[in-house]
Task: inverse folding
């Protein structure tokens, strides 16, 4: 069966510090991968998605970036965090050709 | 950009009652999905309805889709305390590999 992992579960970082959030998927090959951000009590904002290694589509211009160094690994990064980067970050995967997405447990990021 | 818009934003009902949530969207879609999110957790897929379907059932869930009105509804029958969560609709087109989520309905089941 497929599983998706995200870490860390929570993170508190000072403004201006770097960020690296990791997401890995097990039990499937060639998945589509997604990063979302959710502000408190709000909907999901799609940040990046990837249909293959090294292929990243950016949805929202900002100081975040994403990389997919391996087929089942998706990394969200920032060189310098802003206060507005605080939120709940969710990674998701889907099978190629399917619209159903499967979500990880999320990372709660607080930037102080 | 937000495609789906859920209504109401928040809903409180007594345990055992039925809960109905609505979703409206703006453009033509291939399918529409409903997801549930418990507080502080990831989303869980509940049900998918295709654009050529009008109604679909899964356990206590009933979803309808009216493409002429660009709207969908999610009915949860005989609600339970465990149904307390936020519910999101998400729409997919045939143009790309992404789905667009609405802002969600927060459902609270009162004991």
Result:
């Amino acid at each position: 069966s497929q599983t998706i992992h995200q870490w860390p579960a929570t993170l508190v970082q000072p403004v201006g510090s770097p960020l690296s959030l990791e997401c890995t998927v097990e039990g499937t090959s060639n998945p589509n991968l997604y990063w979302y951000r959710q502000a408190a009590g709000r909907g999901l904002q799609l940040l990046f998605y990837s249909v293959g290694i090294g292929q990243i589509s950016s949805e929202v211009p900002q100081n975040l970036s994403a990389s997919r160094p391996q087929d089942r690994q998706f990394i969200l990064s920032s060189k310098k965090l802003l206060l507005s980067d605080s939120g709940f970050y969710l990674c998701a995967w889907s099978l190629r050709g399917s619209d159903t997405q499967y979500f990880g447990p999320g990372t709660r990021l607080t930037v102080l | 950009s937000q495609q789906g818009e859920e209504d109401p934003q928040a809903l409180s009902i007594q345990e055992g009652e039925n809960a109905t949530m609505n979703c409206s969207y703006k453009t033509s879609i291939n399918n529409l999905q409903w997801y549930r999110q418990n507080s502080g957790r990831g989303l869980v897929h509940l049900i998918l309805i295709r654009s050529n379907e009008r109604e679909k059932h899964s356990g206590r869930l009933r979803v309808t889709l009216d493409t002429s009105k660009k709207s969908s509804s999610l009915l949860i029958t005989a609600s339970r305390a465990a149904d307390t969560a936020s519910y999101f609709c998400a729409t997919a087109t045939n143009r790309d590999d992404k789905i667009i989520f609405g802002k969600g309905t927060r459902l609270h089941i009162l004991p």
